[in-house]
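Progress note, sequence design subtask.
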């Protein structure tokens, strides 16, 4: 028999996170210059999440083309 788990917070102590909207098509960064996104619901409306493995090569290729 599994032990019963209890929540850390009561329902009235929690609220759904609503991400800040895009500003001029860009994500709003926190005071450390990062974008916090732990779950899909933290992605602002109109934004698209690209996995890190897909974005790093494409960004470096674009940057190298601009430098030439």
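Output:
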């Amino acid at each position: 028999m599994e032990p019963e788990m209890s929540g850390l917070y009561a329902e009235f102590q929690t609220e759904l996170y609503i991400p800040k909207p895009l500003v001029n098509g860009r994500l709003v960064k926190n005071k450390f210059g990062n974008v916090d996104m732990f779950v899909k619901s933290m992605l602002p409306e109109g934004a698209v999440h690209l996995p890190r493995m897909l974005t790093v090569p494409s960004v470096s290729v674009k940057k190298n083309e601009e430098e030439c």
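Residues 52-67 form the longest helix (16 residues). Work on this subtask will continue into the next period as scheduled.
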